[in-house]
Amino acid sequence: MSLQSIVIVGGGIGGLNLAHALVKYNPSLSVTVYEQIKSPNHQQGWHLGINSQGLDAMKEAEIPDLDKATDKNMVSAFVCVDQNLNELLRFGGPMKQGKSDSALAILHRRTLHKLLAKNVNVVYGKRFTRYEEHDDHVDVHFEDGSKVSADFVVGADGCWSLIRKQLAPSIRYTPVGVTQVGVMFPAPDPSAMPTLMTWLDFAMLRSSSPSGFSILSGIAANDDGGKDMFIGISWVDNAIKEMLPESNQEVHQWMKQIVKTHFHPEFSALVDMTTVDHIVLGGPRKVHSTNYQEHCPLLNIKHKRVTLIGDAAHAMTTNKGMGANTALMDSIDLAKTLTSSDWEGGLADYESTMWKRGSFEVKDSLRNTFRNHSTGPVNFAMSKVFMKCFNQVLVWKGISYY
Ligand SMILES: Cc1cc2nc3c(=O)[nH]c(=O)nc-3n(C[C@H](O)[C@H](O)[C@H](O)COP(=O)(O)OP(=O)(O)OC[C@H]3O[C@@H](n4cnc5c(N)ncnc54)[C@H](O)[C@@H]3O)c2cc1C
């Protein structure tokens, strides 16, 4: 029998896109999203790069006003440079005549959330705690003591997923030995960063140094008609010997010192413009990943009315920028499965496809993480050679051109 009601736990990127796609494929389906944050205006970190696969998944779900939000935020490339701003590797970017640019929308997380939440039945302030699966329905329990029932439950509750913990405890989420902090602030006039603007006009930029520190930066429009810039700094834990600062005030001072010591002076001048209030990844925050498993663990677990998408199944490091894009792709595959008359038969196929895609990205993101944080002159030089050779392949294949 076709499903009549679906509960999605987690109103993040994957969960909200899934809600749109489900209703598109079956308008009579009852779909409710339960989200722990109290309101969509809650502070939600910095920018995300949504590539053509992610954009296609949102188009497929018919997200209202998608073009309006993405048009003013499009860049076409991701560029890697060394600490002195020598270019090493470029994905996409302005192409030779006759070839179209690749697409990457840099969106503020809050902008993306507002866009995706439009027309979706989201209940905010509801923190999921556990579920009980029965033959013909699932009961879902919340921290406030309330309970709802549905034909099917989707765990879209992100990297710390409690649904995953209950359904598939062999998927673990642990630190990878890299830590990060970040600031987001009103984008300064381009004249304050003439060299960086060589790329920031059309790209997100990663700058790595042999010290094991790495900077990710980009510029995107905000909801107030202005532009914000983000600068995220990450490092391998063994790159520093001293105790890490804890308060945001100390983190901010430390960050300024690190950027001044290890990176191009334009980055240092930019970080000097920021204040402690601009910190968005305070902490500092340990970068985590789920453990890589080639075979989908869900296929060995007896379950029928619960599954996972996005970070809940396969949370990855941020170093390939694929987490949100993968969650968006999962959401379309799952929506197609759950709206088909043979959803029971299709579930294992969905889980295999989702896992193959997700676990590949978990592994590749980890590889990128260590490449972006190579320490010592020899490792760093090898990493540079690899990137330059890889770049030649991309140019040769027409994936980038410069
Ligand atoms: C600094 C940073 C930069 C990134 N940059 C990129 C990028 O450029 N490109 C990219 O593709 N990805 C990027 N990512 C990864 C991306 O943010 C995630 O992969 C993506 O958000 C996953 O989507 P999701 O829907 O699975 O989970 P999320 O978007 O995290 O949504 C999960 C939702 O579940 C809610 N939730 C959690 N627990 C509960 C509970 N118990 N009850 C109810 N609700 C709950 C959360 O509040 C949240 O709203 C970045 C991540 C970080 C941290």
UniProtKB/TrEMBL annotation:
It comes from the Eukaryota. Residues 6-339 form the FAD-binding domain. One of its GO terms (molecular function) is monooxygenase activity. Keywords: FAD, Flavoprotein, Monooxygenase, Oxidoreductase. Pfam families: FAD_binding_3. Coiled coil: none annotated. The keyword Chaperone does not apply. PANTHER family: FAD-BINDING DOMAIN-CONTAINING PROTEIN, MONOOXYGENASE, FAD-BINDING. This is FAD/NAD(P)-binding domain-containing protein. It comes from Hesseltinella vesiculosa.
